C-alpha cells in the first residue's frame, strides 16, 4: 500500500497532540476514521509509529525519527504547490531572452531593470546571440524573446519595434576628420574600415554595405573583430574607421571619437520578437509589460 499526503498530515496532527480524540477534532473527522488512516500509514511503512494504551499515546523511536522528516516533506510540498501556482499565474518562472550588441549597449538594460523591479520572482536567463542566431533560436523555440536587428519574417513570429538608433562614425582620436562634428558617409570612401565579422555581424554588415553602396563606394575592410570591444579597440588603435549604432555613446573608450553622420535618414531598428503562440505565463507577462510600459502608438508590428 502507498501512503498519501493525508496520511502524513494525520500523523503530524496526532504526534503534536498525542491524543487521538483531539487530533480527530482538529482534522474534522472521527476518531475511528483517524485510527484507520494511521493504521494504513504504519502498514505502508512496515513500522509502528505510536505506542497506544487506554491512557496514553506516545511516539515510538521510529515515529520520533519520522516526524521531522514528515514536517519537512509537507513544507516542501507546500512550497512546490505555491511555486506551481505562481508559475501558472506568471508571477514566477524563467524567461530566456536573447540580445545582440546594440540592444545591450542601448536601452535593453533599462527595460530589464524595470521589469525585474516589478517581477522579482521571474528569472531572466540572458544570452548573447547575433541577429541571425536569434532568428534560428526563435523559430526552434530555444529562446522566448529576442532583441535583434530588423524584423523576423515568419507567420509564427510577432515583431515589436523596441528602439531605433541613428548611425554614427567611430574614428581614432588622431584622425584628420575627428574634429568634424557631422560627417557625410561619402567622406569615408577611401578609409580603411573595421567591421564586425560576418559570423557575428551579418545583419549590421548588410545594412552598412547598402548605405555605402548608396553613397557610391564599397568599404575596404581591413579588420573583422567578433565583438564591439574589438571594434572599439581597433578603431582607437588607428586600424581604421567604423560605422556603428548611436548606443556607442553609452560606452567610454580612450582614443575613440564618435561623430554623427549627416544627411542620413536611415536608422538601425531593434525589434523584440517572440512566438505569437505564447504558452508560458511568465513570457506573456513580459510581453505585456513590454507593450504597456515601453509601448507607444504604432510600435506593435505583428504582420
TrEMBL record:
<keyword id="KW-0805">Transcription regulation</keyword>
<dbReference type="InterPro" id="IPR005119">
    <property type="entry name" value="LysR_subst-bd"/>
</dbReference>
<dbReference type="InterPro" id="IPR036390">
    <property type="entry name" value="WH_DNA-bd_sf"/>
</dbReference>
<dbReference type="GO" id="GO:0032993">
    <property type="term" value="C:protein-DNA complex"/>
</dbReference>
<dbReference type="GO" id="GO:0003700">
    <property type="term" value="F:DNA-binding transcription factor activity"/>
</dbReference>
<dbReference type="Pfam" id="PF00126">
    <property type="entry name" value="HTH_1"/>
</dbReference>
<protein>
    <submittedName>
        <fullName>Transcriptional regulator, LysR family</fullName>
    </submittedName>
</protein>
<dbReference type="Pfam" id="PF03466">
    <property type="entry name" value="LysR_substrate"/>
</dbReference>
<feature type="domain" description="HTH lysR-type">
    <location>
        <begin position="1"/>
        <end position="60"/>
    </location>
</feature>
<dbReference type="InterPro" id="IPR036388">
    <property type="entry name" value="WH-like_DNA-bd_sf"/>
</dbReference>
<keyword id="KW-0804">Transcription</keyword>
<dbReference type="InterPro" id="IPR000847">
    <property type="entry name" value="LysR_HTH_N"/>
</dbReference>
<comment type="similarity">
    <text>Belongs to the LysR transcriptional regulatory family.</text>
</comment>
<keyword id="KW-0238">DNA-binding</keyword>
<dbReference type="GO" id="GO:0003677">
    <property type="term" value="F:DNA binding"/>
</dbReference>
Amino acid at each position: 500500500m502507498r501512503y498519501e499526503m493525508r496520511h502524513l498530515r494525520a500523523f503530524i496532527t496526532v504526534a503534536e497532540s498525542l491524543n487521538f480524540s483531539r487530533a480527530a477534532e482538529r482534522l474534522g473527522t472521527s476518531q475511528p476514521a483517524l485510527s484507520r488512516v494511521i493504521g494504513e500509514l504504519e502498514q505502508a511503512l512496515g513500522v509502528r509509529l505510536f505506542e497506544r494504551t487506554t491512557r496514553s499515546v506516545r511516539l515510538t523511536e521510529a515515529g520520533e525519527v519520522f516526524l521531522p522528516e514528515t514536517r519537512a516533506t509537507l513544507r516542501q510540498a507546500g512550497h512546490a504547490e505555491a511555486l506551481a501556482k505562481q508559475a501558472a499565474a506568471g508571477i514566477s518562472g524563467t524567461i530566456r531572452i536573447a540580445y545582440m550588441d546594440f540592444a545591450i549597449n542601448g536601452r535593453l538594460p533599462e527595460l530589464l531593470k524595470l521589469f525585474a523591479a516589478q517581477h522579482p520572482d521571474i528569472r531572466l536567463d540572458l544570452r548573447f546571440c547575433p541577429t541571425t542566431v536569434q532568428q534560428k533560436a526563435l523559430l526552434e523555440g530555444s529562446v522566448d524573446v529576442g532583441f535583434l536587428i530588423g524584423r523576423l519574417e515568419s507567420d509564427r513570429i510577432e515583431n515589436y519595434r523596441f528602439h531605433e538608433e541613428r548611425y554614427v562614425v567611430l574614428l581614432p582620436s588622431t584622425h584628420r576628420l575627428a574634429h568634424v562634428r557631422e560627417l557625410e558617409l561619402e567622406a569615408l570612401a577611401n578609409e580603411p574600415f573595421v567591421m564586425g565579422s560576418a559570423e557575428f555581424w551579418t545583419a549590421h554588415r548588410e545594412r552598412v554595405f547598402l548605405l555605402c553602396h548608396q553613397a557610391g563606394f564599397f568599404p575596404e575592410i581591413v579588420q573583422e573583430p567578433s565583438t564591439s570591444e574589438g571594434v572599439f579597440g581597433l578603431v582607437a588603435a588607428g586600424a581604421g574607421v567604423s560605422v556603428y549604432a548611436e548606443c556607442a555613446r553609452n560606452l567610454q573608450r580612450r582614443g575613440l571619437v564618435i561623430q554623427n553622420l549627416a544627411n542620413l535618414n536611415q536608422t538601425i531598428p531593434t525589434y523584440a520578437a517572440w512566438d505569437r503562440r505564447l504558452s508560458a505565463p511568465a513570457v506573456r507577462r513580459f510581453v505585456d509589460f513590454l507593450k504597456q510600459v515601453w509601448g507607444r502608438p504604432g510600435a506593435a508590428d505583428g504582420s
